[in-house]
Structure formats: C-alpha cells, structure tokens
Prior knowledge:
- By secondary structure, the protein is α/β, with parallel strands linked by helices.
- The relative contact order is 0.16.
- The chain has 8 helices and 6 strands, in the order αααβαβαβααβββα.
- It has a single domain, classed as Rossmann fold (3-Layer(aba) Sandwich), CATH 3.40.50.
- Strands 3-2-1-4-6-5 form a 6-stranded mixed β-sheet.
- The chain starts with a helix and ends in a 51-residue tail after the last helix.
- The protein has helices at 4-8, 11-18, 23-33, 46-57, 74-87, 98-108, 117-135, 179-188, and strands at 38-41, 63-67, 92-94, 141-143, 160-163, 168-171.
Amino acid sequence: MSNLPALETKIPALLEALEGLSIEDSLRLLAKEFEGSIAFSSSLGIEDQLITHYIFSNDIPVRVFTLDTGRLFNETYNLLNRTNSRYDKRIQVYFPKNEAVEKLLTEKGPLSFYQSLEDRKECCFIRKVEPLKRALKGVQLWVTGIRADQSDARQSLQLLEWDEGNQLIKYNPLLHWTLDEVRAAIKKDNVPYNPLHDKGFISIGCAPCTRAVREGDDFRAGRWWWEDTSKKECGLHAS
C-alpha cells in the first residue's frame, strides 16, 4: 500500500516544528525526518547558491543536484566547478536523454523553442522536466530555491506544500525573502555566484533563452522574452 497520502498529512506538524527555526536548523530537522529521501535541486542561480552554502558548509545530509540542459552559459559551468571546489563536495548532475535530444534536433533543428510556446515547452520537457523526474525518484522532501516575487505564479506558494505531480513535499526556505536579502547573505558569507548576475541577468537559464534585463524590469523579463509574461514557466514547478 502506498504511503504517499500519509506523507501529505505530515505537513501541518512539520510546519509547526519549523516555526522560528533558521534555514540551517530547518534543513537539519528535515534531513533527519526524511533521511535518505531528501534532495535539493539547484539551478546554480543566486538563491540556490545560498541554499547550497547552507547545506554544504554545515555538512547537512541533503543530496544536491542540478540539471545540465546542454545549453547553459559557460559562466554557469564555471560556477559549478567553483562550487564543488569551494566546499570540496560534488553536486550531482543530471543530463537529458540523448535519444530525445537527438530526435528533437534532427526533426526540428536547434532553435525550435523560438517557433511556438508548444515547441519551447517540448524542449524544456526534454532538457529539464524529464531529467528532474529521474532526479526526484525516491525523494519524499524536495528543497527548492523558489521565491514568491519571482513570478505571479509563485505568489500563492507555501513554505511547505504538497506537490501532486511529483507526489512529494516541497520545502521553499527562501519563499518570503527578497532578492536584496539574498544578495546580502551571499555577500556576508562570500558565497560563489554567477557573475552574470552582476551584468543584468537576474534569472539565469539556458543561454539561448536568457538575456539581461534593465533595472526595474520584471524578474522573469529576461527569460523567454518573446512569450506572453503569464506563460513563463518551464514546467519544473508546475502545480
């Protein structure tokens, strides 16, 4: 018999247990509660670098992984290397299935994501969503770097919530943090981060789908800029 419904019912008690705790202590508590079945997905963005710092610098037993879409900026790859070296630990890397990528590029070419929303979502599914499913196999508690002000779709998220699609609990420790607060914490602890953040890149994804934004622009303005702003999600955090 599946234990997943029972897993969902843990959320109220967990929220009570986390009340007043720092992120580090919250991660320790959750790592103990979900020993061997807790993981943090890092995009290597500035928020995720802060959470990685909390996990690695405190030796909290949380598996840290990232998705290499094959289309990342060189600066992102350099950051991955710097982070592994800084903490003398390894971020686990998941890559898309080569057969699916080969089929996509053969049939639609390397820039199909510019053609339509459906084509872009197909590319995101192959390069990000499917690898995430593999990375989350056996995971009961998924830690993310989501912040509420990153997009309208994330305003209604909770600190702990049930992810129906992945059948697990999501923990969003930075949900109510501002970007300025994240930057201040990064500076305080000298956490390595992507230098593109200092060049107008607030949200960093695949190189062909990310560009710098002007001061005051929406957080997601530099991602999939050719699309309607209400549709700017890749599917990783779909409800």
